[in-house]
């Protein structure tokens, strides 16, 4: 009888532990379900070309991405900050995911993308079904089959968006020297330099143009060369 009582108590303890584990898992699942995806879409909306970056000395702009950060429940649009386009450890070990974007998307287009219900629904599925595990050497991200399908669908969704965006969704990139008009230089003096620079920048923004280079520096150098040339003539 004593042994039977111990067996019953042992079974009861195991059942309670199992029930507790299931309850905790249910609580964790509920937390994951209730978590909200965060973005900083409003910041992007105010920028001309927020995911464009062309470093000095480089032959082309940095690649741009839609970046998923499941551990933070955050989605962002950004560019690769690494010269040489090195892959960060978090991306290499599937703790972050990247989907290519055109680098010259306008700020309002990027913001709209980050607020799109279809996009966020797929991202939610990816985040909900994401786990992090220790593989013996590194912490790696694991996606369930559902999450992997959602990621692939998200990639196709982005491709579809790119096919349907029009010219208003992009900005043009101009070197300052190619954008400044002759009419801007006619009124240029030392006293009007800042005023002319502000006008040039405002006109470019209105036309969805991102200027590569510093406008004031260009105008300053133009005046300097003009003054030196006039001095040589004298």
In short:
The chain is α+β, with helices and mostly antiparallel strands and 234 residues long.
What does this structure look like?
This protein is α+β, with helices and mostly antiparallel strands and 234 residues long. The chain folds into 2 domains: 41-169, no CATH class; 172-233, no CATH class. Helices cover 53% and strands 15% of the residues. The strands form 3 sheets. A 3-stranded antiparallel β-sheet has the order 2-1-3, with helices on one face. Strand 4 and strand 5 form a beta hairpin. Helix 5 packs antiparallel against helix 6 (145-164) and helix 9 packs across helix 10. The chain starts with a helix and ends with a helix.
Based on the model shown, name its key terms:
234 residues; 10 helices; single chain; elongated; two-stranded antiparallel ribbon
Layout of helices and strands, plus pairs?
Elements: H1 2-34, H2 41-45, E1 64-69, E2 74-79, H3 89-92, E3 97-101, H4 107-115, H5 117-128, E4 130-134, E5 139-143, H6 145-164, E6 172-175, H7 176-179, H8 182-186, H9 193-206, E7 209-212, H10 215-233
Parallel strand pairs: 6-7
Antiparallel strand pairs: 1-2, 1-3, 4-5
Shape: elongated
Low-confidence stretches: none
Report the portion of residues in β strands: 5-15%
| Distance, first to last CA | 120 Å
Helix content: 40-55%
Spell the H/E element sequence.
Answer: HHEEHEHHEEHEHHHEH
Radius of gyration: 28 Å
Number of strands: 7
How many domains, in number, for the residues?
Answer: 2
Strand order of the largest sheet: 2-1-3
